[in-house]
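re: the backbone from monday

yeah here it is again, tokenized this time
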């Protein structure tokens, strides 16, 4: 008998990060309204300048604004 994976494990396993979604796909979410127009490079630079000396300041920078734009068929 095999163990049934938890709900979070099943959801994680269904994720395919390399699959591009078209704008008409129900899974596609437009994040432009919440992303804002701030200069991300300047925000990161300011945060790094303000970091406590001797402590790490981790940042995750993924993609670009254009990478989330809807693909045109």
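seq for it, each position gets an aa:
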């Amino acid at each position: 008998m095999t163990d049934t994976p938890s709900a979070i494990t099943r959801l994680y396993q269904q994720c395919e990060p390399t699959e591009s979604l078209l704008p008409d796909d129900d899974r596609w979410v437009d994040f432009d309204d919440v992303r804002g127009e701030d200069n991300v490079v300047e925000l990161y630079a300011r945060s790094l300048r303000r970091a406590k000396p001797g402590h790490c300041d981790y940042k995750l920078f993924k993609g670009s604004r254009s990478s989330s734009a809807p693909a045109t068929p």
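Helices lie at 7-14, 32-35, 40-50. The first helix runs from residue 7 to 14.
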